[in-house]
Amino acid sequence: MNTRAPSVFASVVRHELTTLAREKTFLLLLAIFMAMTFFSVYIGWFTRTTTEAIYHASVAYLAAQGVTSIVADPLTGVSPLLVFDNMLVYLLLIGALLAIVIGHRSFIRERAAGVLPLVFVRPISRAQYIGAKLLGVLLALTGIVFATYAVSAFSAAFIPALRLPAGGYAALLGFYAVSLVYLAFFAAVGLFFSVIMKNESTALFMPILVWVAAVFILPELTTGQNPVALLNPVTLTGAIPDQGSFFTAAHRLLSPFSVGQLYTRSALGMLGGGIGNSIASLFALLAYVGVAIGASAFALRRYAVTRDLYL
Question: How many C-beta neighbours within 10 Å does residue 169 have?
């Protein structure tokens, strides 16, 4: 009996991937996400070149007026890889929703179809089933992230004026590796609520609520003194007046719980060449992913035990 368990494990993983490929909602979100990925580098490059053109035109105008004290180019020293920073916004928003759908559908589809008892007549242990489900979700996310990286690199290659630094594509791969960690968190959250919630709509609403809190509410509270810090790689520290002690206290208390901020710091560290300053954020993000995956595995195990599914 046990000799057949590995093949059953692989069958569960394969089933996870093939059924996901037939999900219309998933395919629609994926198509939108890939289209946005393709054009994101053009948007970033166009924004950068437009900013440069405006600066040089302003310098020429001021020089003609006899102004000698001119502010240095604000893009001096800014990594060319930051032309990809639009992907940060897309991953924070569309990517997270895509991950929630993957995690949510992973369990809901089988529970709704009533096929779980049939799965468990096969020689597979509780731990193997849980591991196969989680592996299937992570493999789906990995495939999406790798495809996104390939689309970004392909798109960048068609802009002759865009010259990435040495190791630029490796740094871009690091950016997407961090993004995979971020997406894994929301996929695990989606899976967790799909197991513990009886109602399918509520099971989808709850992870979206977590997403809203992580990406919108907590960053607003923790970046009140720097309102665009979540999406803008350029710091505004000292450029705006002090917003008071409330936001200072909120930043200290809530910043460690803001998954959106942790991801932003880690991802921009990869693109901007300052990963050493954001390594703590990356480890914190990994810890949250570990907790979310652990909670999902526990929920799956508890569901199996309470439903007597012969795991």
Answer: 16
Residues 108-118 have pLDDT tens digits of 887 777 766 66
Answer whether 294's CB lies under 8 Å from 310's CB.
no
Q: What is the largest CA-CA distance in the chain?
A: 88
Residues 116 and 305: beta-carbon distance below 8 Å: no
SS3 letters for 61-88? HHHHCCCCCCCCCCCCCCCHHHHHCHHH
Residue 54's closest CA among 85, 75, 81, 78?
75
Nearest to 181 by CA among 70, 269, 249: 269
Q: 99: exposed, middle or buried (C-beta count within 10 Å: 0-12, 13-18, 19+)?
A: buried
Give domain limits for the chain. 2-306
Rounded mean pLDDT of 202-229? 75
